[in-house]
Amino acid sequence: MTSTSVITQTRELAVFEDEGDNNDFMSLVISLQLEDLEAMEATDKGKARDDSGLGDTVYSIYRAELEAMRRCLEDQKIAQSMDAALDADAGILEEVLREEAIARRDHELAVALSQGREIPQEEPQPQPAAKPPGEGYRPSATSTRTPTPVQQPKTKEVSEHSISPRSQTSSSDGQGTSIASSSRIITAVQNIIKFECVICMTSVGSDQAVKVPCGHHYDFDCLVELFLQATKDESLMPARCCKQPIPLDLARPHLTSQQALEYRAKEIEHDTPNRLYCPRATCSAFLGAAGGAGTVTCYRCAVRVCKECKALEHPLGECRPDFGDETMLELARREGYQRCPVCHRFTELAHGCYHMTCVCRAQFCYLCGARWKTCKCREWDEERLLDRAQAQVRAEFGRPAQAAQVPLFRQRVAQAVDYLRDNHDCSHPRWRYRAGGDNCEECGHYLPQFLLRVFGAPGTVSKTAVTWM
């Protein structure tokens, strides 16, 4: 059989073949044409030499086209396989999405009723794909998939070169519905994959959460609020979770330019160990690091400040002590305050052990002021330990339950005291929601709705934390 007859018969077979995506048949056509090409090349070798080299060029181009068609078919098989898998799961995803929406609606109604708010308007719920009677799920018309725009020209190229003229016309109908269906499924997956915000305990979709270095997730509002609070409360600086700083880049897409600049300025201020501030009480602008000779001009009120003693410029004499500082030191000694050895802030111990952590993150002993673990002072006082245990259990019970369950309250306080004797110097990242109002241990504010509690041991509260809700 000659090469021409092989090609002719192949094309005749293609004419009678179904014009669907019969990739196996098309692969067979290309294989036969490659074999025919090899036969033609072998036949030409026995003929007279063609100095023009035109024959070799034609064969090379033809072989390259056939190989490109073969790769196109292989890619199309993979794409169709993935497409079929998505179609098979589309109904399940849509059904789960609908159930999630209903559950979310129920939660919103419950919260609104418990807080006495107006019931929110119901949003349209996604409907599952229709199923023919007596059959399992089949892709609906809107989810029927066709080759993508990238695949269409390649299919047409195969038809032009290898198949019959009848198969050269290809319809692009359905491409829009294919893309829309894919987008719908991606959205469904994003809504199904939920993460719990570590601050407000709300479940949010994967596209509405930010994962921080420690592995926890924040919703956008809580992450922004954390960074805004850090600019006002230095104890929260740098913004962190589980003692690991949260990079500003994670929150920058959700902050305004002004908010990001303010946070960065406060971060620089926090990282400066020996700070210099304007001594004018009506200004108090941060002026950078103190120490060294010379003066610096306040950028806000234009006064000149001595970098050595942190007072107003005094060109006629040496630095003199501030009598206001001496008065404050005397008050601190009388009241039992301690001073941070790093930033020199005064601190007061309300309850707990003598291990102090300053807002500048320095750790020191409250009794002697030395850096923590460098002295031989005792680590706690029994009365303060009892106060700490009572505060913990009170936060766990809530005030109404404490009055109603006095024996159980006392028992839990005794358990908390025993636990704190062994674990007074530890911290735990496990948080639990507790409904009802109480005072926050950190800021003292009364929170009327709920508290988040950190557990040191099963049933024992080691810290009460405030949220901004």
Explain this structure:
By secondary structure, the chain is of the alpha+beta class. Helix content is 45%, strand content 13%. Strands 15-18-19 form a three-stranded antiparallel β-sheet. A two-stranded antiparallel ribbon has the order 1-2. The protein has a two-stranded antiparallel sheet with strand order 3-4. Helix 1 packs antiparallel against helix 2 (23-45). The chain is extended, with a radius of gyration of 37 Å. The protein starts with a helix and ends with a strand. The relative contact order is 0.05. It comes from Gloeophyllum trabeum (strain ATCC 11539 / FP-39264 / Madison 617). This is RBR-type E3 ubiquitin transferase. Residues 132-149, 167-178 have a biased composition (Low complexity). Residues 193-381 form the RING-type domain.
Note poorly predicted spans.
1-20, 128-179, 456-469
Number of strands: 19
Question: What distance separates the N and C termini?
Answer: 84 Å
Sketch the major β-sheet: 3 strands, antiparallel
Number of helical segments with 4 or more residues: 12
Give the overall form: extended
Count of structural domains: 5
Please give a handful of descriptors for the protein shown.
single chain; 469 residues; alpha+beta; 5 domains; two-stranded antiparallel sheet; extended; disordered N terminus; disordered C terminus; IBR_dom
